[in-house]
Amino acid sequence: MAAKDSTYVFHVFRKDGTSLLLHPFRNPDKIVGQLERQTVLGRYGAEPRVEALTLFRNELYRQVELGVRSWVSDQRFIPKFLISAGVFVLGYFFMSYVIRDPIPVIDELAVALGLAVGSFLLQGRRDLNSRLATAKRLALRVKVDQIVFQESAFVKQVELALHRHEGGSLEEVVGEIVEPVQAELGGAYRDEASQFLQLLESRFNFHKLQREEKTLRRLLRSRSGRDITRMFESKKYDFPLYAVYKSFKKTVASPR
Known about the structure:
α3 (77-98) runs antiparallel to α4, α6 (153-167) packs across α11 (239-253) and α7 (170-178) crosses α9 (206-222). A hairpin with a 5-residue loop joins β1 (6-13) and β2. The protein has a 4-stranded mixed β-sheet, sandwiched between helices. The radius of gyration is 27 Å and the shape is elongated. The protein has helices at 28-37, 50-75, 77-98, 108-128, 131-145, 153-167, 170-178, 190-203, 206-222, 225-233, 239-253, and strands at 6-13, 19-22, 39-44, 148-151. With 256 residues, it is of the alpha/beta class.
């Protein structure tokens, strides 16, 4: 079981061999704090391909770069603002009192404002190449490199259930959605399961599917296979994955 300051990254193989990678690092404004405060643990069922993990790490490197930009901007905003404000005041007075006849059309205020904005942007570019930003960027990339993936009995359960739904009949999958069967899940895997469900909820529009469950129940009772097939073929919803979600959601919500 993971510590309270740990977070998971899940690699799930789908029946067609494609990879589903679930992780919480999708907001560049938060990634710096997430990587600094938390230990990241990778979990998989069937062993993932090397290229899938390489793509995942490259994606995190890009997020780290965006995150460092946001972090540096926040850290240096007040100094940059004060310096730019000073440039604005100096530029305004220079154009007003030193150059008596300013350039036609462009008045003192516009020139001073342009100088202030230019100063702000130049400082931002300099800050991205500063020692502070370089050290932060390197530390976070090391954190990404330290993410180790290990086999998980929980993810194996997820893959088995997902493959079963992906290869099953439409009526069976709908039945698992409207009347989910509680999955067998030991207490040691509840933390993994809880974070897995949170990542699914943050990535997929399951709220909309929940609103469709009344329709699915009605279609299942009426055995309207054609209408059910039409909903599946629309590709709007990932019904097999939603069926897995419903099963483990029921399990995690139940008393230990």
